[in-house]
Design a protein that fits this description.
Strands 3-2-1-4-5-6-7 form a 7-stranded parallel β-sheet, sandwiched between helices. Helix content is 46%, strand content 15%. It has a single domain, classed as Rossmann fold (3-Layer(aba) Sandwich). The protein is an alpha/beta fold. The structure holds nicotinamide-adenine-dinucleotide. Nicotinamide-adenine-dinucleotide (NAD) binds next to helix 1 and helix 6.
Length: 261
Amino acid sequence: MGRLQGKTAVITGAAEGIGHAIAGAMAREGAHVFVADIADAKGEAVVAALRQAGLAATYVHCDVTSDADISALIAAAMAATGRLDVLVNNAAIAIGGMPVTEMTDEQWHRLIAVNLTSVFRGCKHALPHMIARRAGSIINMASAQGHVGLDGWTAYAGAKGAVMAMTRQMAVEFGRHGVRVNSISPGTINTPMNDKLVAELGGKLMQAWVTMHPIGRIGEPAEVAEAAVYLASDAAGFTTGIDLRVDGGLTAAPRYVPDLL
Ligand SMILES: NC(=O)c1ccc[n+]([C@@H]2O[C@H](COP(=O)([O-])OP(=O)(O)OC[C@H]3O[C@@H](n4cnc5c(N)ncnc54)[C@H](O)[C@@H]3O)[C@@H](O)[C@H]2O)c1
């Protein structure tokens, strides 16, 4: 039996990258996964591939900056399966690579809307269903960037730090209702988000990332997905309020390498 057999899991930003890997891993563990994204064609393709493999998956268009979309996403999962066991607030964007003095208000507000307000909204709409069943696991995607500094990423780090603080607060507030709330802080992971950054910021960036990780490489989405499956599963029944670092040692031994950047 799969580790998530019979559970319903909603994952935002699941059309590609880490969210895609989490959706696949959770479906293979027996969950009915709700793949939510704004990239409809990619999201539909993810669901088609999972169904082709005999797994339970549904695509829902959801822009996490829209309260109505998130409310409808949670409602769709409840209507189809009658339960909500797992919410992974994963969707985010990377606006950065510039000093905070060069960031516009518009960029700031966009980043906060996608990376932080979305977490508030996801939790707000999911919690009542979890509390009603006295069971649930919320997983918020944070980042190593919320732990250590790197030139050019003040706003992104601020949002991720806030995600971790909110995770702790909600773990305390909703533990008594049977709901666990944890975050994951990945190091640099091989995803389209980072492909875009390397394309924009130059080839030396990848070399710098590899050097920063004591384990000597960047991570794979499947390695983050494994952590998410654990936190979603009953095996993590006594684990709440933590930030699980899946970062190849990045935050254990911060290495600042300005000569490569
Ligand atoms: N890749 C990394 O190195 C890394 C490191 C630390 C943390 N993270 C975090 O992991 C999560 C996933 O990152 P990734 O690298 O897989 O990103 P990605 O860009 O590869 O994928 C993100 C997905 O989110 C979707 N998305 C973007 N805006 C959205 C919106 N408004 N509504 C709904 N969906 C939206 C995109 O369409 C895409 O499918 C993010 O929270 C990111 O901050 C990533």
